[in-house]
């Protein structure tokens, strides 16, 4: 079917709004899009080109409709089993991102040597050649002085190719410092399933067969890690089962759920242990998974210690220990007081959840709180207690997708590089008071937000050359003023981004990045709906500006320059080890390198010689893979872990975590201190054996600000329209803001319960000053019953002063539009994982009308 361009523009303009809100592309006026898939394709008729969206961590396979060289529409990849061919509302913002007039169009260099939030960098355009030459000079200087470890590479979002740029390049130069944003993202969350079942990652859910879903500190139909799938399937659980949402704020899921429990921030652990108590006392635990009393009589009675020898455990470890150490006294009445919720509701949800088992799941969020690790452990333990983990209709670890290994860089790493890559990392991970245990392994978790402190303190050393890409830590890190100071101190900083941003303000060189979803070559893997996938990123439009792919093209250009200056190892590595799997040809320029790397990495997925035994999709060659854009894995097979054991120390689901204990003991031994001393220094309350079981720790001791002076708990959330921190310069972001419950269009508002507002004499729309222990921000008040009294909430992502003309109030004068609460959230951590605190109301604030 053909459609005249003028007519098409007319319908698409009208339909875009409606479509964006429904997350659905099946509007009849848009059938041109559907029909071109099978029909003949021409430039004017347009065609769908597969790609991958990384607007959030769902990493959706998508397709972009391109007509006369212009990207005009976005939808989910029709072949995707993770999203059934739908994208979420934010997918549509891709179009505005591509055609954003404020994009950086050429490399630039700073001409104002002074750096600061209010210092205009006075950027001037330069060529790629000059930019790369300057960067190579700085790196050669480090090599000459044998201080290559003073090179720092910081990463936000990334594709598989981050292995080349972020993983290998620093180690080729000779630096241990590749710092990802993971610990300002969601690392705490991973500890919930790691400490219990040895899985460090995000879970997947079998919504089709689920009878009871608890969403806990997250909002799956709006954010978290699979909105298109949740939007498509939540109704099944709503119709055929029960949905309960636990969140101080009536989020999107809560607005549709059967139950909303507006818990007091930071007290979720109390509710979780009380639910466990209820389940045990009422004999509702899963006997097939956890086992039973030898004589079949339930001895779990409130207050009564149980003899471990009386219970036969099956796939779990330490259920009775957990009961004795933590659960026996903690009933729903206690938790109701602690969490400020209804006792009957705690019991009702615990009962409904356990009775639906194992067709049930708790879907929980990052819980980035100074005591978050134990809260998520307590929450995730419930998934084990009822046998929902690894069960049909429950939650699963999820499927991977085929991938071919990258060539090793080791043979090309010289002695300087080897020696200096082994130096202590800049983020202070593994220091006594910062165990940063990724996978319960001390000193292996990144402590992203602490890099600012480390740079300022020059501890363990100073940083001389830094590169950042796809990140904006001055905006996204809490207590961002630290990042402003730190980045002002770094003598040479390169920022690789498509948009000007708060962090770019401190750059000496700006490299305009190709957009991941439409201009670059890469691969991404993700999962949802019990399927995994490998999905392609490929150019769908001709680049309008002088942009390049950062992870591949920039690596190549840098390697070339370093070779010219006498350090050829990187160039040799890239040019000799990478070759086209079909033609055997080695790349000879940066773009060829990007394509070659993409073909190599995905070879197992598309090469008929390599994929013949794969049980998932098997494209017939590279061109076929490009055309389809995706390889779906087979569906997840349940109960394999029940049968074969969990990857924990005991091979069981650990209510008593030998896995976490080993981590703590290793760390304590390194410093020759007791585990209790580590707990004290990391701001945890547990001592002794309690530290190894999921338990509740009060948020009060780690709250910043006294209740008297700062009576409100501050929380924030992601807007439905947030492409992480990256969509605030799109006008649609502001036009449709109202799609977040309690929010309004065109504004940035702090949500406040009307009862609280009345006491403070605040009316809807008043400007209010929000003050924490570290600063104040002024923002508009929005009165809303959907927020628990005593709590104030605001969506993250607004308050940019340097992101473009829509995101800022005055871009030229660097005046923010709205407020970025990271400026008033104190720098603090869940030190077990090294994660930045932002949830759980750890920031106390006071509110005053201005
Ligand atoms: N208060 C508060 N703080 C938070 C959060 C919160 O909810 N509340 N969320 C946290 C979370 S979960 C995360 S993950 C972090 C995210 O924070 P960061 O990792 O810092 O990333 P973003 O701010 O999302 O985006 C950073 C930059 O990416 C650039 N960019 C956009 N598209 C592309 C592209 O295709 N290629 C390249 N190279 N660059 C691109 C943009 O110009 C932008 O400046 O923020 C965290 N900070
Ligand atoms: N729309 C959208 N979706 C996204 C992203 C995005 O930018 N926009 N980013 C992606 C990324 S990078 C990440 S890491 C994930 C994370 O996204 P989510 O898993 O959704 O988590 P956050 O938005 O960080 O967590 C905030 C939620 O926790 C609630 N909350 C805060 N404190 C407490 C508390 O003490 N108790 C309880 N029960 N609830 C609390 C807030 O009200 C809010 O609903 O989302 C991904 N999905
Ligand atoms: S923003 Fe997230 S959920 Fe939405 S289309 Fe992109 S990756 Fe998928
Ligand atoms: Mo994140």
UniProtKB/TrEMBL annotation:
Pfam annotation, one family: Molybdop_Fe4S4
Q: Which UniProt keywords apply?
A: 4Fe-4S, Iron, Iron-sulfur, Metal-binding, Molybdenum, Oxidoreductase, Signal
The cofactors named for this UniProt entry are: [4Fe-4S] cluster
Superkingdom of the source? Answer: Bacteria
Task: Name the PROSITE patterns on file.
Answer: 4FE4S_MOW_BIS_MGD, MOLYBDOPTERIN_PROK_1, PROKAR_LIPOPROTEIN, TAT
Q: Which residues form the 4Fe-4S Mo/W bis-MGD-type domain?
A: 46-102
Keyword Lipid metabolism listed? The answer is no
Task: Write out the GO MF terms.
Answer: 4 iron, 4 sulfur cluster binding; metal ion binding; molybdopterin cofactor binding; oxidoreductase activity
Family of the protein in this entry = Belongs to the prokaryotic molybdopterin-containing oxidoreductase family.
Output this protein's name: Anaerobic selenocysteine-containing dehydrogenase
């Amino acid at each position: 079917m053909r459609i005249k361009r003028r007519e098409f523009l007319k319908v698409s303009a009208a339909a875009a709004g409606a479509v964006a809100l429904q997350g659905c592309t099946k509007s009849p006026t848009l059938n041109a899009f559907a029909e071109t898939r099978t029909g003949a394709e021409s430039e004017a008729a347009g065609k769908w080109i597969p790609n991958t969206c990384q607007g959030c961590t769902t990493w959706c396979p998508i397709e972009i409709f391109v007509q006369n060289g212009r990207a005009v529409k976005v939808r989910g990849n029709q072949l995707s089993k993770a999203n059934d061919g739908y994208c979420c509302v934010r997918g549509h913002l891709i179009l505005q991102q591509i055609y954003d007039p404020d994009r950086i169009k050429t490399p630039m260099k700073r001409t104002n040597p002074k750096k600061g939030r209010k210092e205009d960098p006075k950027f001037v355009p330069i060529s790629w050649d000059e930019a790369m030459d300057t960067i190579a000079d700085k790196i050669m200087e480090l090599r000459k002085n044998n201080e290559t470890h003073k090179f720092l590479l910081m990463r936000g979002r990334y594709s598989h190719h981050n292995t080349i740029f972020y993983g290998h390049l620093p180690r080729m130069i000779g630096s241990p410092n590749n710092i990802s944003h993971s610990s300002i993202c969601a690392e705490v969350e991973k500890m919930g399933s790691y400490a219990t079942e040895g899985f460090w990652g995000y879970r997947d859910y079998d919504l089709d067969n689920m009878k009871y879903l608890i969403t806990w500190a997250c909002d799956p139909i709006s954010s978290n890690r699979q909105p298109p799938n949740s939007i498509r399937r939540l109704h099944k659980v709503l119709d055929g089962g029960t949905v309960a949402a636990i969140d101080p704020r009536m989020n999107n899921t809560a607005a549709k759920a059967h139950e909303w429990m507006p818990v007091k921030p930071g007290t979720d652990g109390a509710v979780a242990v009380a639910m466990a108590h209820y389940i045990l006392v009422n004999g509702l635990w899963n006997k097939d998974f956890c086992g039973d009393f030898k004589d079949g009589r339930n001895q779990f009675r409130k207050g009564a210690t149980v003899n471990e020898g009386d219970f036969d455990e099956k796939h779990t470890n330490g259920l009775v220990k957990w009961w004795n150490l933590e659960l026996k006294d903690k009933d729903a009445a206690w938790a109701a007081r602690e969490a400020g919720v209804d006792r009957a509701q705690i019991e009702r949800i615990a009962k409904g959840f356990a009775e639906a088992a194992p067709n049930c799941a708790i879907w929980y969020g990052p819980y980035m709180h100074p005591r978050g690790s134990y809260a998520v452990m307590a929450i995730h333990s419930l998934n084990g207690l009822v046998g929902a983990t690894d069960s049909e209709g429950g939650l699963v670890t999820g499927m991977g997708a085929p991938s071919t290994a990258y060539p090793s860089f080791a043979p090309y790493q010289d002695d300087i590089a080897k020696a200096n890559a082994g130096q202590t990392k800049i983020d202070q991970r593994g220091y006594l008071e910062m165990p940063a245990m990724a996978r319960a392994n001390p000193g292996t978790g990144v402590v992203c937000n602490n890099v600012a402190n480390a740079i300022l303190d020059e501890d363990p050393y100073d940083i001389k050359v830094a590169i950042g890409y796809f990140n904006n830590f001055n905006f996204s890190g809490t207590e961002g003023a630290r990042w402003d100071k730190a980045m002002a101190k770094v003598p040479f900083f390169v920022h690789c981004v498509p948009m000007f941003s708060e962090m770019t303000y401190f750059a000496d060189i700006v490299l305009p990045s190709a957009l991941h979803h439409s201009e670059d070559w890469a691969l991404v893997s993700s999962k949802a709906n019990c399927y995994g996938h490998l999905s392609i990123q490929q150019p769908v439009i001709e680049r309008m500006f002088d942009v390049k792919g950062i992870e591949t093209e920039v690596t190549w250009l840098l390697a070339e320059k370093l070779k010219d200056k006498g350090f050829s190892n990187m160039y040799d590595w890239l040019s000799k080890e990478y070759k086209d799997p079909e033609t055997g040809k080695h790349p000879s320029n940066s773009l060829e390198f990007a394509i070659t790397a993409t073909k190599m990495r995905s070879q197992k997925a598309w090469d008929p010689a390599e994929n013949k035994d794969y049980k998932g999709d098997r494209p017939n060659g590279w061109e076929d893979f490009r055309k389809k854009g995706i390889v779906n894995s087979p569906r997840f097979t349940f109960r394999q872990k029940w049968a074969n054991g969990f990857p924990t120390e005991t091979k069981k689901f650990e209510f008593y975590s030998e896995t976490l204990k080993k981590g703590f003991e290793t760390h304590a031994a390194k410093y020759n201190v007791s585990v209790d001393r580590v707990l004290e220094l990391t701001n945890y309350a547990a001592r002794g054996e309690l530290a190894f079981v999921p338990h509740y720790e009060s948020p009060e001791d780690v709250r910043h600000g006294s209740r008297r002076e700062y009576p409100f708990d501050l929380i924030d959330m992601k807007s439905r329209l947030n492409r992480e921190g990256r969509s605030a310069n799109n006008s649609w972001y502001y036009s449709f803001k109202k799609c977040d419950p309690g929010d309004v269009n065109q504004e940035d508002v702090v949500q406040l319960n009307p009862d609280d507002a009345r006491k403070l004499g605040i009316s809807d729309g008043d400007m209010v000053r929000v003050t924490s222990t570290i600063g104040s921000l002024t923002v508009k008040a929005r009165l809303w019953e959907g927020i628990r009294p005593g709590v104030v909430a605001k969506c993250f992502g607004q308050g940019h002063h340097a992101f473009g003309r829509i995101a800022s109030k005055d871009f030229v004068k660097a005046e923010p539009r709205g407020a970025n609460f990271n400026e008033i959230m104190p720098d603090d951590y869940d030190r077990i994982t090294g994660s930045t605190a932002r949830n759980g109301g750890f920031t106390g604030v006071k509110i005053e009308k201005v």
